[in-house]
Amino acid sequence: MNAPLKLGLKQRYSLLTSGLDWTPSYQPFEKIYPYAEFEGIKIHDWSKWEDPFRLTMDAYWKFQAEKERKLYAVLDSFAQNNGQMNLSDVRYVNALKLFLTGVSPLEYQAHRGFAHVGRHVPGVGPRIAAQMQSLDELRHVQTQVHTLSHYNKFFDGFSEFRHMHDRVWYLSVPKSFFDDARTAGPFEYFIAIGFAFEYVLTNLLFVPFMSGAAYNGDLATVTFGFSAQSDESRHMTLGIEVIKFLLEQDPGNLPIVQKWVDKWFWRGHRVLGLVAMMMDYMLPKKIMSWREAWEIYFTEAGGSLFEDLARYGLKVPKYADVATAEADHLSHQNWATFYQYCHAAGFHTWLPSAEEMDWLSEKYPTTFDKYYRPRFEMWAEMEKEGKRFYNNALPQLCSVCQIPMVYTEHGDHGATSFRVSDYKGEKYHTCSDGCKDIFDGEPEKYSQAWLPVHQIFQGNCGGAGLEDVLKWYKLNLGADNLQQAGSPDQKLWDEWMAAKDKVAG
Amino acid sequence: MSVVALDKQYADKVEIRDRLENFHGNQVVYVHWEDHLMFCAALAFPLPPGMPFGALVKEILPTYYGMHPDFAKIDWSKVRWMIDGIETSPRLEASLQDNGVGHKSIIRFWTPGLDGYKHSRS
After folding, report:
1. All structural domains of chain A
2. How far apart are CA B34 and CA A75, in angstroms?
3. Is A502 helix (H, G, I), strand (E, B) or coil?
4. What are the structural domains of chain B?
5. Which A-chain residues 301-360 have CB contacts (< 8 A) with chain B?
6. Residues B106 and B32 sit within 8 Å (Cβ to Cβ)
7. Are the C-beta atoms of residues A24 and A16 closer than 8 Å to each other?
8. How far off is chain A from B50, nearest CA to CA, in Å?
9. A393 in contact with B at a CB cutoff of 8 Å?
10. Separation in Å, CA of A24 to nearest CA in chain B
11. Do A427 and B104 touch (CB under 8 A)?
12. Shortest CB distance from B40 goes to which of A39, A406, A428?
């Protein structure tokens, strides 16, 4: 008896995809793909799509299962060995709280977004790739939640991450970023997430978090990072493939794509401000400064990418120069914001120590001593006098990025940057030329923003007092919020360390 | 430019959440003390439009800015005011509305001679 021939990967891929793009006869094309044309993108020949992966479902399941097995073996051993006790310092845990509440839910949003695109793009190659990416993103949110659930057994600020993501004021920044992408058409979503975020900016998110974890003794987080890494490289390949394909298909696509690249570069840059602050202020053992990471991953890597794309007529994103100049200010301005509002945040803050300030002076020679050291020294004096500064009024928010309007003028960093647009007789404030351009491009969309501060004033967030609002956030008062010093996290850690010292004699 | 949407009637269906009538008789007013970035952003308050400008100066500003060592040193007769980008001399007894402060207006003020902790503009 002859055994059936085993098919090669290439043949299986062609069997998987061929015939999926049949010409419909019962229903008109535009009813099956209602989202395909309204964005103005013209595709003449989907068969020109070169699939960069040629991955079949059975191979996909096999690779992913292998990675899961390794990850969960590491997580088990981390838990059994009380890995949390080997961290560099308990302050590090706050970076994980920020990740779980701010970033992990975005993985889920990415899963939903790619599932939608995987249904609605009328080309079979990108459709399959988007569906696989959708599954990857679902896997990422799961592995992150599972990994960080170990920390939830000991530390505050983790347990209500999903609820908080939808409600807490600063989490509206990453949330609205993804809401914006998911409510765009499928091609804009592809450029926003697949290209601008996954390709241009992702190294500025993942590398700092994962190296930060490695430097600070968090083997569990390093492992979920590694587990996601091979998926990420596939996502990056898809992102670059999409942009090249759109630009090759029709010259009319260029201005549309350029506008999206400009917009999503700026949106992504604003969201990554959270990473900047994490790197420069939250890691007890620093890896490199935000400024250095920006140089490596945006200025150098992004520079050669856009050189390569120049042959299609695509330009470096608008305001990339402003973002580069802002890299000397971003982390300091964000940390100063959380310092004064940490009574309303789900993680703890602290002032940088004298050694940390010296490190910041060295890394930011033109800005730290001039603008930010005095601010922290002033607050240190106030703390000493028992008058720790909390800002008891709510801040003005940007109508686009939804970050408090803390950023300063390009060229005058002692002055806040204010921009305003008029739409149907209402004023809309934005924090920068980048955000104002985005508002003015689609005022219909951004005039609907759910701005946390205004929603509190309208009485839609549990009540008028701070305590009412924090309860509505499911923030555990006195445990999840306020300073690191005196927190239950710190107390527990100090007990662990004292017990260790005792054993060591 | 306008929105690119599948629904041709998108613009007519927009629900603006920040409309004045959603604030229960108040309007949102932003206040910003220039050269004092200890306060990271302009502050937002829901205030009745009929509230006298003087009440903002005498009651609200000291409550929220008073902890800054410069605050006690302010010479109020020398303060420069700007409402929505226009330099102005507000009348303290007149209402916010009569001083040109509307919904989502921003009031910025400069305090001459005072530029933050050790002149750092913080």
Report:
1. 52-354+463-504 (1.10.620.20)
2. 50
3. helix
4. 30-119 (3.10.20.560)
5. 333, 336-337, 340-341
6. yes
7. no
8. 18
9. yes
10. 22
11. yes
12. A406
Q: From the list A35, A375, A455, which residue is nearest B38 (CB)?
A: A375
A182 Cβ under 8 Å from any chain B Cβ? no
* Partners of B87 in beta bridges: B82
CA distance B57 to chain A (A): 15
DSSP B27-72: EEEEEEETT-TTS-S-EEEEE-TTSBHHHIIIIIHHHHHTTSTTGG
CB–CB contact B1 A447 (8 Å): no
Beta bridge partners of A416: A408
CA angle (A470 as vertex; A467, A474 as ends), nearest 5: 130
Structure letter (DSSP) for residue A171: G
Per-residue 3-state assignment (H helix, E strand, C coil) for A357-392: HHHHHHHCCCCHHHHHHHHHHHHHHHHHCCCCCCCC
A481 has a pLDDT exceeding 80: yes
Note the pLDDT of residue A47: 85
* Three-state DSSP class for residue B4: coil
- Three-state SS for B5? coil
Pairwise CB contact (< 8 Å): B103 & A458: no
pLDDT at A5 exceeding the cut of 90:
no
Taking the C-alpha atoms of residue A266 and residue A438, their distance in angstroms, rounded to an integer, is 9
In the block, tokens 């908080």 appear at: A164
Is residue A1 pLDDT above 60, yes or no? no
B78 to chain A, minimum CA–CA distance in Å? 20
pLDDT digits (tens, 9 = 90+) for B57-75: 999 999 999 999 999 999 9
Instruction: Give the residue from A346, A352, A11, A430 showing the smallest Cα distance to A171.
Output: A346
Q: Which residue has the tokens 């003015």?
A: A440
- CB contact (8 A) between residue B23 and residue A458: yes
Q: Do B44 and A457 touch (CB under 8 A)?
A: yes
Count of other CB atoms within 10 angstroms of residue B63:
11
Backbone angles phi, psi at B109, to 5 degrees: -135, 145
Chain B residue with the nearest C-alpha to that of A41: B4
Asked if B106 and A429 touch (Cβ cutoff 8 Å), the reply is yes
Secondary structure (H, E, C), A461-477: CCCCCHHHHHHHCCCCC
SS3 B110: strand
| Number of other CB atoms surrounding residue A465 within 10 Å | 10
A46 near B CB under 8 A = no
Provide the 8-state DSSP code for A52: S
- ipTM score here? 0.98
| A374 contacts chain B (CB < 8 A) | yes
A287-322 residue pLDDT tens = 999 999 999 999 999 999 999 999 999 999 999 999
Contact check, Cβ <8 Å, B44/A444: no
Q: Nearest CB to A444: which of B3, B18, B116?
A: B3
Distance CA A178, CA A437 (A): 18
pLDDT at A270 over 80: yes
